[in-house]
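Changelog-linked ticket: pyridoxal-5'-phosphate example.
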Amino acid sequence: MTAIRPYGDTTDDGMVQLSFTLPVTVSERAREAAMSIARQMGLERPQVVHMKGMGADFTFFVVYGATSVSVEPDELEVEERPFPLLSYQEVNRAIRETLKRPLVVVGACTGTDAHTVGLDAILSMKGFAGDKGLEFYSEMKIVNLGSQVSPEEIVETVEREGGDAVLISQVVTQRDAHLVHLRQVEEALVDAGLRERVVLVGGGPRFSAHQAAELGYDRIFGRGSTPSEVASYLASQLDRLVEFGPHPTTHRGR
Amino acid sequence: MTAIRPYGDTTDDGMVQLSFTLPVTVSERAREAAMSIARQMGLERPQVVHMKGMGADFTFFVVYGATSVSVEPDELEVEERPFPLLSYQEVNRAIRETLKRPLVVVGACTGTDAHTVGLDAILSMKGFAGDKGLEFYSEMKIVNLGSQVSPEEIVETVEREGGDAVLISQVVTQRDAHLVHLRQVEEALVDAGLRERVVLVGGGPRFSAHQAAELGYDRIFGRGSTPSEVASYLASQLDRLVEFGPHPTTHRGR
Amino acid sequence: MAVKPAFQRPIGRLPIDHEVVDECRHLASEIAGPVDALARSRTTASIERASLRLVGVDGVVEGTEGAEAFPIPNAVVDAIRDSVGLERGALIPFFDAVETGCGDIQTTAGEIARGERTPRWPDGVDYEIALERATNEARHGVDRIAEAAELRAERIASVGDAEKPWFYLIVATGNIHEDIPQAQAAAREGADVIAVIRSTGQSLLDYVPYGATGDGFAGTFATQENFRLMRAALDEVGEELGRYVRLTNYASGLCMPEIAAMAAMERLDMMLNDCMYGIIFRDINMQRTFTDQRFSRMVHALAGIVINTGEDNYLTTADAIESAHTVLASQFLNERLALAAGLKDEQLGLGHAFEINPGAPDQIALELAHAQLIRECFPNAPLKYMPPTKHMTGNVFQGFLYDGMFNLVGALTGQDIILLGMMTEGVHTPFLSDRDLALENARYVFGGATTLAGEIRFDADGDVARRASQVLEECRQMLRKVADIGMFEAIEAGMFADTVRTRDGGKGLDGVVVRGDGYVNPVETLLAERVGVAS
Amino acid sequence: MAVKPAFQRPIGRLPIDHEVVDECRHLASEIAGPVDALARSRTTASIERASLRLVGVDGVVEGTEGAEAFPIPNAVVDAIRDSVGLERGALIPFFDAVETGCGDIQTTAGEIARGERTPRWPDGVDYEIALERATNEARHGVDRIAEAAELRAERIASVGDAEKPWFYLIVATGNIHEDIPQAQAAAREGADVIAVIRSTGQSLLDYVPYGATGDGFAGTFATQENFRLMRAALDEVGEELGRYVRLTNYASGLCMPEIAAMAAMERLDMMLNDCMYGIIFRDINMQRTFTDQRFSRMVHALAGIVINTGEDNYLTTADAIESAHTVLASQFLNERLALAAGLKDEQLGLGHAFEINPGAPDQIALELAHAQLIRECFPNAPLKYMPPTKHMTGNVFQGFLYDGMFNLVGALTGQDIILLGMMTEGVHTPFLSDRDLALENARYVFGGATTLAGEIRFDADGDVARRASQVLEECRQMLRKVADIGMFEAIEAGMFADTVRTRDGGKGLDGVVVRGDGYVNPVETLLAERVGVAS
Ligand code: B12
Ligand code: B12
Ligand SMILES: Cc1ncc(COP(=O)(O)O)c(C=O)c1O
Ligand SMILES: Cc1ncc(COP(=O)(O)O)c(C=O)c1O
């Protein structure tokens, strides 16, 4: 398949819609400034179709124009899910046969983030979009710490409960809060010498799978993820867990 | 003043909103394709916040991201109106004193364009946004040919009426209809040897003053133009008209 | 896609005076009488061409092509006009040529077009022979129209019909091959009706372009082949969706009768057809338009086509508050002239629009009043409600909201056909995504508010009720004036859209012919007979 | 900007059973009784700190800075807790130190904070002296609160007040210096109320950050200095616009009493203050929150501050149709506990929200039913209506439409305070342009539909009326259950938002102290006296 371009109403017309604010008083000069921004972004014959002053110091613009960039979808490497999607039974069986004990999952919203709906969608019975949550899996033990949990509490819990998987949720992204907070948990686990013993998973609406490496996580789930995807992923990591043998602290945990 | 950048909620964050369609089936691959388009347009850390399939062959995207481009408004040359804005009386006086006869204005929507509201806004008594139209000026004679007028009819009318100014409106821009049609009128006037004798003015919502030269027009008016601006412009061109002396055909015209 | 809640037409919600409504209807038929009489006393080049097309004349003169291709029906009618004149119609001279020639319709038409044969007016037996052949062929032609209606009914019965309200979307790329995928995408996302907008200026062409075209400006040429291609594409997607997808085009213009005939033959489902649009908005001669609209409407009537009238156009130039009553007045006239041409109430897609200045105080309340008033005046008509256009700017966000409020008023007042607004109305002809967003908008609003139509009431002495009665009264006053001076005089006096048109001015007068005695047009006679109106 | 049409609160539009409403009120006071008793029998570290702040203790301990700066009021209360305990309140030990020391409040506070002096419990004359000084200073402090109310009234009288409904907009950059220009731009485009959202997690801090801050996450720290700066900026733009612009912040959290006091001193106009939000949504100990909410509400009452309750939060986690009645139930409880703390009906900005799934059938009709029901139940409260959030996605166009329908329902049901929705709710904290578009949206809808509020009626046995009665009945059932088992037990049983909280669980219990006999707090006593409730 060949390269494609944005489509307005004719193949390859390249039409896109753009809107933005400039910190400048509304005026013809402002319009030209917007045109210049649009051109610098590669739009041909851009049209400022709307210009509105907001207070004395800002102006909002809506622009339409044609971009010449194109993309070959087939050339892109899109990561296909590197693990098979399993059924409820398959996941339970895998845990029973490979791990030979319940899989302990510790979940939390860390830092100052109090958005628990996403994490609950993955963990709680109720689940998400008709897909039951991890609490529903007979072979898993879920410890849902809820919101605004500090890295220290998470580490303690992993030790106490003998956590196999750690699930961290971050929803607030302003000023990169989500990256900062995920890293803090990862570091705390490293410091506690637990990092290799657990499957570390992060998630939230503004993440994409790519980011796992840079954050030091085993896997990252983005918007719309389902519990079964998460369960299937955990099942795919069981061998690794077995390798490490039982948690040193597990017995305390039970 | 220094360079400015698009403003989301923090100075210089460079945030812009973008939306477009790609002729591809909705999928993760489609999302990546959109990301690629956004990056090629210079957006840093673009986020595809919305992706929707439209039928089987197209997908719509909404993207937010930060652009690094900036602009220095003061550096831009913005054409300041090259003629003074005159009052109703001043315009009439100028015509009386300089031209010493009524100024004959021929207006038309040419080609297949039937959008007369814009031209009427400039020509008719009623005018535009509370600003009376050219018919209201005692020293002007207005011949409004209305819609879908051929270049030939326009030339004939200019000859018959002894037109001093020719006002052409074009609203439909699809497939550059407006440019094509304006040029046709200009060429017809050239062929008839009338081009230098008349002030040739074009207008429509999608034009900008810049385009006059390339189209061979004396002046182009864009969206939101007012009759007084047009009247003032015509008044600024009287000397030129005088130079050419009376229209060869004028007498036939009266 | 969310299923539409049960559609209903809320009636009896406003305390309007029905005697005033009755008087308006009475005035309208008084006014329409002379117009219909004029139409029955004349024929036009386009009516004769349409009749020839219905008996099988088609194609273009060799050597001519593209948008400029010269149609054989035009060549034949011109030849007949130049030889024997059109006062007695074109069919007799034409079938005389067929019968005295090789007997084949298309071949003979080609010969006449190339000037190889000169038509004559036959007498005696020749006349009888020509008349008999003409009558037989006319019967086939008229049957073909009726069959289109049956075929539509069958298809709907087999694939299933769309629920009301019908979401009506426009495609306008200029190229039928871009139009098709866009129309199909729209249908898949919920469009019930697809309208292919015509290229600018086609309405002023005195012939119909030929074949599949890709060179329209801001619209695609209306050609029989383009009709066929789009109808087939929609049938295909209709099968896929289990929902019959309707197709619309524009009859108005210098070729109303011919385009109406083509639409009937290609099984289009709706046609823009207004008794005055051409006169007021395209400066087409009034005798031409009045005569053509009658013939084209008889064709629509028999073909089971729903007509869409163009009252929305009044509000694109005039103020929607000041001129609200002109819309209503025009609807009463369109209704009357439609019934006179054999159309049934169920075929009257009377048009109106949501065009009040968004900055005007209480605009939403006023739009509700206007839309509900029209609903109450025409309880059995499938009303066509048009979205905001004039006040749409480049602020596509705000525009999307206006379209949402339009949808809401449409839902609350039970409008049947909803022409979905485009957020980019103020910018460009619709993008594929504009249409898709418009459908999402409509699904949300109609899904959420349709049942309210059944249970909302308006305070009997509130502003909405007051406004509705006021508009109705202004309409009565206007119709009384028109009735006083007569329709032609009213148009000459600029009483419609402040536009002055004279009886003999405008385009296309040369194509109007007063029927001489001995005028014969079996197609027209049979049509009138079938739809039950005087020929 | 279009002027708002005359605001009205449509009442008596639904045939709801007012005996049920009365029973709900009755049940609410039954339920609230023990809660108020508990609050009157306890004090908290934050109440004592708030009292100290009101008598003039401020500042942070030298050497500590930024978001981590440790406030002197905390240091003083900690010192008193460690020396003599808080059972009898902090004011007597503190003023004893003042009187036996240099006599200056702030100096003495500094000394105690630095550990240079250890507070003691004075006896005999010393006690009398300390009490007298405490009482005098308390009187000044309480006067200062009352003066804020007067000053507001004067300013409104001089610059002019905003018309209802009030458009409420949020700024949330994290940096007060970015917040200010954005708030001013919003005010210039029509914002009547500006809310500065707090940095995430501030509600769990057991101290109030100090000074002007720029390092908040998704919100700006609530500090007295930030309050002052924004209030001044809004006064400035208010002068310019000839319209008093209101300022809002959040009291809820571990420092409710202190933030309430700061808000009063800096003349904020509204405060988010809910009797249960901290317990349910922030896992703050219930004794702490119930005790703190009472003190903070007495402060608001005297300061003429309108409280905003947080019922909208129930719908961000639960389904808006299933849980509609929980919103109403919570409103009855918030109302009761507010009146018990001296607030007047006009100060009760009871919250609710437009959160029904946009895909649900008849969602617009259902939202109308819910909003109108609440309007009918609380005819004198300045209701605060919250926009869609949960179902807002990255489709900003569709989101803009949802916000428009929210505005419409707000207009039709006469909601007083409209928190304008952001089309980018599903994406990021508001951009400056998001706010401006939201205002344009609101001007259009309220300008166009407000008068309809006066004249729309609903079919007495239609879905809207039926739905309203159903929700009211479900609310009664819930309140009956709560009344049966008691409030604390109900929360322990997870009857609110399916969230289980125990009496001794959650954050901040360590700051709760049962008042011993001999508890003295002139600030609290005077406040109760002034607002006319039992101390
Ligand atoms: C509900 C909500 C709230 C509720 C939260 C209730 C609760 N108990 O969770 C309340 C009202 C308390 C709230 C408060 C605030 N909120 Co809030 N809130 C939302 C809202 C409306 C919906 C979020 C939601 O529930 N989504 C539904 C869930 C199912 O989706 P999800 O979180 O994406 O989760 C899915 C995936 O991401 C993934 N996933 C998520 N986590 C994890 C974890 C793992 C391990 C895995 C595998 C997968 C996974 O799986 C889930 C299922 O598919 C959004 C706006 C919006 N429409 O998105 C704003 C939003 C998230 N909130 C926002 C803000 C700023 C706040 C506040 C900070 C505002 C303030 N200063 O007061 C406060 C403070 C809260 C805090 N301290 O963090 C912003 C965040 C902006 C940003 N990008 O930084 C948003 C986007 C609104 C906005 N535009 O401003 N909020
Ligand atoms: C009203 C209208 C109509 C009316 C026109 C009635 C009439 N007598 O004019 C009707 C219903 C007939 C109509 C029909 C069509 N329309 Co139309 N119409 C509009 C609409 C809604 C408003 C235009 C308008 O009146 N603006 C108000 C005037 C005052 O503004 P203006 O034209 O910009 O004029 C100002 C300036 O531009 C300037 N100016 C303009 N001309 C001149 C000339 C001179 C000399 C000077 C100095 C200044 C000047 O001064 C004016 C005052 O400031 C626009 C959508 C929109 N909201 O813009 C679509 C629009 C212009 N129409 C459009 C189309 C495609 C059509 C059709 C071709 C559709 C079809 N295929 O059927 C038809 C055919 C008409 C034809 N043959 O040209 C498209 C054009 C797309 C494009 N950019 O190419 C638009 C943008 C709608 C859309 N998004 O699809 N239309
Ligand atoms: C009744 C009617 N006919 C035809 C048209 C289109 O006409 P034209 O093709 O002349 O632009 C319209 C457009 O609004 C209309 O309302
Ligand atoms: C009543 C109430 N208080 C406080 C807040 C903000 O709380 P926090 O600062 O804990 O996010 C909200 C937010 O929705 C609220 O509704």
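Closing comment: Example verified and attached. The radius of gyration of chain A is 24 Å. Confidence is low (pLDDT under 50) at residues 250-254 of chain A.
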